Amino acid sequence: MIENYTFKKFLGHNWWFLLLAFSKLFIQSEKESAFGSLFIDVLFFGGILLIIMFVYWFIRYGRKQNKNI
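^ thats the sequence. predicted structure below, dont judge the formating
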């Protein structure tokens, strides 16, 4: 049986990368805010980071899983 490598598992294995990225965004936003609000900065740039990670996962693993179905 072929086990699928879901995006949830991908995030589970790479939680440290998200933590590092969010802390870096938080520190940078405290120094100089792009949108005038720390919350909006972290939310916006964190969303962009999640989109980039999802695109990487989809290109690397998602298309292969669709072929196996």
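DSSP finds three helices and no strands in the chain.
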